[in-house]
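Hello again, I could really use a second opinion on something today. I owe you a coffee for this, so here goes:
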Amino acid sequence: MLNINFNRYLIILIIILILVLIVTAAIILHHIRRTCRTGTMDEMEGHDFEFFCADLLEKRGFMDVEVTRVSGDFGIDILAEKDGVTYAVQCKRYNGPVGVEAVLRTYGGRDYYERMVGVVMTNQYFTAPAVEAAKKLQILLWDRGYIDSMLEE
């Protein structure tokens, strides 16, 4: 009788250990995939990052996604539309925080291209003055966390 109970506990313990290993492996795999996607983003050249962002927007349901020419684009890198709303997007692949200049250029570029919404999209985060200016000028800020969430969906 004691031997039967011991065997049951041993089987239950083994099942629990297997489940813990499976869950742990899934968490590690998810982390590795996420790091590979966003890590690659950090190593891109600026123009490659623009195409990366354009592809991401298309996968998220944006239509008429167009990467603008490299020079003379008035600070706007991507033009797009979603649900009847037109967007002017500036992409910033930086190694540090994005400042207020990107917000100001997007503000001007949004009006130049006659778009409804201006967006600054970056692999980093924004400085406090950039966030403050974006609020006043009604420019959307899509930082690394936002891009990561777009990649996960």
